[in-house]
């Protein structure tokens, strides 16, 4: 069913370098969330904090009643079993074929028989469309296939939470579109909580139920997709529409002179909000909301042309 992650007042620094402070958000059970932010704003650090690989300085991360930030190693070990993680490069063992890579967590963490392991591995290989490639070595397949193999491995212990660290990095737009569809289909099938760190604006605009934006050492905004895509808040608007005009500069915040030079420049209108990507079988996910619902409920007029089928095609 997926479990909720409740983050409250989280701050992390390395020595004197504050990465982010006072981050609070709830990743709802079973929903898909995307975390965005300029390079170096600590998205990977955030993911690592969620699985207890890095300890925050202050704040809590509560999952099923356990605070990961302060729990014992033993409790952390138990909580980690709820997670599946897709690392950026798939993190495959180069000398093992895909079958053994995917079977690895089962052999390490369970006492299942080889015949049970075979059933599970083949089920997950099927889920990600890799049946027939079991004997290949990671070096013999494309980057997209490696990601899918990494995903099969992330799913092998039936996680309640799946973390994706830049699943689209290094993939061409077509492979990214296929991977996004796979992510949506998987969420519909396994109903786990998904958190995706990405730089891909199309992914952020079309895949998730919720979007977060880390910027300048804090969480600039977190909420439903339609809330962020209709937001006029300068940082959110600039980032989600990949624009140069706005507070975010080349190396982070623009200085006063740069901002003054932009004063009076007209911002392009907000583009239409695309339809959310649906499962390929056409059956809505449990957490999927009807298009435009958030805007209607909150009295927000979405940009013209929003929620039309052709708006979705134009941005996919
Ligand atoms: N273990 C560590 N020790 C010291 N500094 C670290 C450590 N891990 C990360 N950092 C620093 O934290 C900052 C944020 O890094 P992080 O990789 O989380 O950014 P990011 O938002 O994921 O970036 P990108 O989008 O480029 O992947 C960087 O300045 C990085 O050098």
TrEMBL record:
Keywords: ATP-binding, Nucleotide-binding, Transport. GO terms for molecular function: ATP binding; ATP hydrolysis activity. SMART domains: AAA. Residues 265-316 are annotated as: Disordered. Residues 5-241 form the ABC transporter domain. The keyword ATP-binding applies. This is Phospholipid/cholesterol/gamma-HCH transport system ATP-binding protein.
